[in-house]
Amino acid sequence: MDGAGSFGAGRAGSAFDLIAFIKQPQTTLRVLAWIFSMVVFASIINEGYVNMGSERLHCVFNKNADACNYGITIGIVAFLACVSFLALDVYFPQISSVKNRKRAVLLEMVFSGFWTFLWFVGFCFLASQWSRTSPKELPLEQASDAARAAIAFSFFSILTWAGLTVCAVQRFLLGTDMTLFTTEHMAAHPPKQPYPSNDIIGQTTIPVNAFQSPPLIETVETCPPGYKIPPAF
């Protein structure tokens, strides 16, 4: 199927334009989402655990290991997803099938929307656990900056992934309209004739004008004997 101009990309097989690719909104948002996710999970892994004079490490978020695990998990998955979708964006113009393009855009739209929700949950979870953390129980001077960075960039991740969801929805709506103009669709649905054909078993269509008689012209030959043409005034 010819995927010309469908789902926000040009004709399949066209040359890759790096400048145009960089200027795309989803490229900028994806790079930002990649950086923000890296900051979140790296902050928690490196400085998100403190010890209390023993070998056991405690999560800086109110000693709740689930909070640290949640932040690390969604951060790493988001990091890998950004790399994967960025590679898909590069390869996307080479996809000739409109159905495959539609599946790719649907996957991106669903994943981006779902991960926006997970980042929102993560932001609320980390902020709630941090607000309950007591300096008397944990030496917060060791990991306070990392905890605040994880919370702040979790919030920024909500915005970037929400923007990616909007871009995916726009591409899906654009592709839904543009698929009506593909060559396969036009071949499957030829244009209808404005008037029905008059052909009957291979007979040639006779124009309507052929059945019209010529205008009546009075001449000397057509007048009966003894008839006089009245004089013209």
UniProtKB/TrEMBL annotation:
InterPro entries to which the protein is assigned, alphabetical: Marvel, Synaptogyrin
Topology in the lipid bilayer: Multi-pass membrane protein
Compartment(s): Membrane
Keywords for this protein: Membrane, Transmembrane, Transmembrane helix
GO cellular component assignments: neuromuscular junction; synaptic vesicle membrane
Biological source species: Carassius auratus
Protein name per UniProt: Synaptogyrin
UniProt record similarity statement: Belongs to the synaptogyrin family.
Limits of the MARVEL domain: 21-173
Keyword Magnesium assigned: no
Lineage top rank: taxon: Eukaryota
Membrane-crossing segments per the record: 31-50, 70-92, 104-130, 150-169
Entry keyword Transmembrane: yes
